[in-house]
Amino acid sequence: KLAFYTDSVIKDAVEDAKAQLGEKGRIVVRASGTEPVLRVMVEHEDLQAAEQTAEQVSSVIRRRLENK
């Protein structure tokens, strides 16, 4: 689960999401301290934008870490 910290594709996806959300939202991606999972948390004033951003970043993470 910690491979996401060094994966440049995942880092780029998170940075792109931050840029898309702008001043109206934020994203936090972190490893769970108690489970073998990553948590993707997105806040935005527009719920649809938050959900779409979370799904985009989660999809990149799943693809990149599927076989690691």
Task: Provide a descriptive summary of the structure in words.
The protein has 68 residues and is α+β, with helices and mostly antiparallel strands. Helix content is 49%, strand content 21%. It has 2 helices and 2 strands, in the order αββα. Strands 1-2 form a two-stranded antiparallel sheet. The longest helix has 19 residues, at 47-65. The N and C termini lie close together (8 Å).
Unreliable stretches, pLDDT < 50, 5 or more residues? none
Q: Helix count? A: 2
Structural class: alpha+beta
In the sheet with the most strands, the strands line up as 1-2
* Percentage of residues in helical conformation: 40-55%
Major sheet characteristics: 2 strands, antiparallel
The quaternary structure here is single chain
Radius of gyration: 12 Å
Beta-strand share of residues: 15-25%
Beta-strand segment tally: 2
Give the overall silhouette: globular
What's the rounded overall pLDDT mean? Answer: 92
Distance between the termini: 8 Å
Summary, kept brief:
This protein is an alpha+beta fold and 68 residues long.
Descriptors for this entry?
68 residues, two-stranded antiparallel ribbon, 2 helices, 21% strand, globular
